[in-house]
Amino acid sequence: MSNSNSVDASEDVAVRSVNKRYEGLMTIRTKAVKGKGAWYWAHFEPILIRNPETNMPKAVKLKCTLCEAAFSASNPSRTASEHLKRGTCPNFSLMLKPISELPPLASPSSQQNHRKRSSQSQQAVGTSSNAYPMNMVDSFAQIAQAVPSLSPMPPVLSGGKQDLGPLALLEDSVKKLKSPKASSFPALSKEQTDIAFDILADWFYESCGSVLFSSLEHPKFKAFLNQVGLPAVLKREFWNAKLDSKFEEARMDSEARIREAAFFQIASDGWEVKTSANGDRFLVKVMVNLPNGTRVFQKAMYFDGSTLPSEYVEEVLWETVRGTCGNNAQRCVGVITDKYKAKALRNLELQNHWMVNLSCLLQGFFSLIKDFYRELPLFRTVTENCFKIANLINSKPQIRNILHKFRLQGLELPRFIRVPPSKCDISKNVGTFITMLEDILSFSRILHVVVLDDSYKVVCSEDLTAREVADIIQDVGFWNGVEAARSLVKLIMGMAEDIEAERPLVGQCLPLWEELKAKFKEWCSKYNFSEGPIEKIVEKRFRKNYHPAWSAAFILDPLYLVRDPSGKYLPPFKYLTNEQEKDVDKLITRLVSREEAHIALMELMKWRSEGLDPLYAQAVQLKQRDPVTGKMKIANPQSSRLVWETCLKEFKSLGKVAIRLLFLHATSCGIKCNQSLARIFSGQGQSRSGLERAQKLAFVAAHAKLEKGDFSSAEEKDADVFGAMSGEDDMMNEVLADTSSI
Question: Measured between alpha carbons, how far is 241 from 388 in angstroms, rounded to an integer?
Fold first, then answer.
């Protein structure tokens, strides 16, 4: 078993390395094609070579787009020299033209004015210019830039150099009047124009406010439209008529999907306060989770003010339920939000016995980080010591001068250590704490050298704080604490990222918490930390977020059936505590009518003793490798619910509970909206029509994102782009370094 696991692990590493290398080469090529990279990428294209048996990537090759030949991707520059420059490629030589065939660079007037001089220079160059192919043009261009211009000195004007710009505009106007040029493209037909504007409108709406509507009236954008043969665009048309049309189309599609579903779950995200320069604001997104795994956007709500009362939130959620369900409120199985679990959601459950209202699992994990920061002494000690080091470096010019001395020797060091703002509650903004730890660790090696420097010893003789900081830096326990604190937060954040990406269902909550607890035990063992305080904090947070539906869904989900010695696949009751077993009984009896309660419990006993047919159980638990991440995932996530609707029809009462529980999502996180969308909402003030327009824009944008399966924000995409554009050399070095591990 261990050997197979090690083989799988090595295969995963190899697949990730190949994918990473391929993505790196594609990024380099994309930049190069846009003019920000080596010339040869215009003729080379990275391709993935897959294993014919497993269909998994096994290598990366470079394909010549001119002759279709494939080469090793280990050194693209050398491949270009050997294949293209040395004439190996039969089609590359056909693209080369002698320089004499290029069009003249000078204007007709300058050729006439300097005909004698140009003819003499052409005679001097003679036939030698014909010997230079196209791939030498760049070199000539660089030389030409270095040589002083032979054009006459600019005229002396009364306004000085400031007159040169208007003079150029005057000459340009004269040229246009002398020889007016037609548009670069013929005017498009009405049908073509409508299609083009329809695509343009889609782009504007899907950008969700990151592209401003005022951009439609920008002179450069108008010039672009004219250049491609399109008429000017009216901003009010995009903000009114076209937006109404797109909204109606998206709304009708969403409502049709909701009508087709027998039941659904409402997910509400965004209740957490987002503080800005304009005050506290909320942009709450409401979505509908359907049993088939798809999601439908319902609406966006904007709140401007302080924290909302729980009673008001309860009213808003119930109005949302009624507005979505119509006359049959029982179609809504439950609500999940990122806040207000203890009051609003619980009250709705008490008033409506069929509802299962959950708090977001992801928010529970994030809250656990806050708990550790508030209650674990390790975090307080590390924070205090890091602040002392950061304040000394950031506030003492003598210390920065010592660091500057090392920078002059070639060491790359940041000038300051980033620290949380003075009024920042770090427990609510752990990102600033992690940033400080990262900066401190990046200084770790050089700080040990700094405290031994003679200049630092002089500072210590005058400053007690400097001596205290020196003791902290030379204390091995401090660095172990910094690494332990960072590792603990990274551990939780890593699992949170997976949860956000995979969007687990409610039946996975208990296994995920157990996985997290196991990782905490490993962390305690690694950093020689007592398990008691960690377990106490984790258990306290677990109880706050726990819902009986976690246990019931875990028992009813065929995905978690366990094979016993006789070959039966039985529900995993042995992994539940006595309290959790009672929770299963209570929840099932609450979700059915009083007449069915005893029948449902009898069926639960039968399910506990007989389980599911082994063949169907194995089919539900079948896994396959995700081609993107390389991880093993359930092949058909809907099969757990479908088994209850088809193969387990004899469990009539219990089956009703199972199919309504198993599709419930454990997270409320949905589409990430741009900050610009929130600004659009806030910019409408109390205007009812303006807010209605903003809601329609949010609806159209969210509907398009869900259709594409794109849940990221524009800010995240820009961050990815700028991260990828950190430099071709760095990217290439990383890509080439990965080849050694394959």
Answer: 60
